[in-house]
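Entry 14. Ran structure prediction on the chain below.
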Amino acid sequence: PVIEAHPETAFVFIGSLMTLVFGVLNLIVAVIVDTFSEKREKDVEARAQDMEVQEREEKTVLKKIFHKIDEDGSGVLSFDELEYGAKKVPEFRQWLRVMDIDDGDLRQLFEIVDGDGSGEVDPEEFVEAMFRMKNTEAKTATKFVKHLVTRLDNEAKDMRADLAVILAGLTERTEKALQMLEPQNQVVDKALTDTSTFKRTVSLEQRFQEQVPAIQRTVEVAMRK
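Output, structure tokens:
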């Protein structure tokens, strides 16, 4: 009735109605966002719990694999045992297949797992390294490349250190040799000096011999007078 009586008031009513509608829609969106945010937080917690359960289960499996590979029961793995396990232990072979590791990569795998470089792998090293390699986002090939680069860098450092030691030894021996040759050098220098003096003496004697006839003629002329 108001709009019919005063049509210009339609803009006021329509604006108020649109404001109310958008306000209600914003409220609904806010409620939905809050609901999904809460669910997401709960989902993260659930995922974390699932990951912990999975980690425990996989590490338990890895411990069993370790004991199967450890033929002599020494509590540590050698490279030969690791290589044997890759061929004869089905669980370990399947684990390697999942990580895309073949027989040619076993040496690098052993060096990576052998964290302390002792040449033997204990259960903790084996379980932790194998679990990380399987479950981290980085690919196994990337880990191999990183390990290879690190090993080459360490070898280069060792080589530089060895070269420094060798050069220091050569320098020391050279200095000693020069000290030992010093008396001989003095003898050689003296011989060269004596030779030079002898040459000058011979030269003077030759010049004197050349002057002898002239002196004799001068004496004969003087005696005739």
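The chain has seven helices and no strands. Will compare against last week's run tomorrow.
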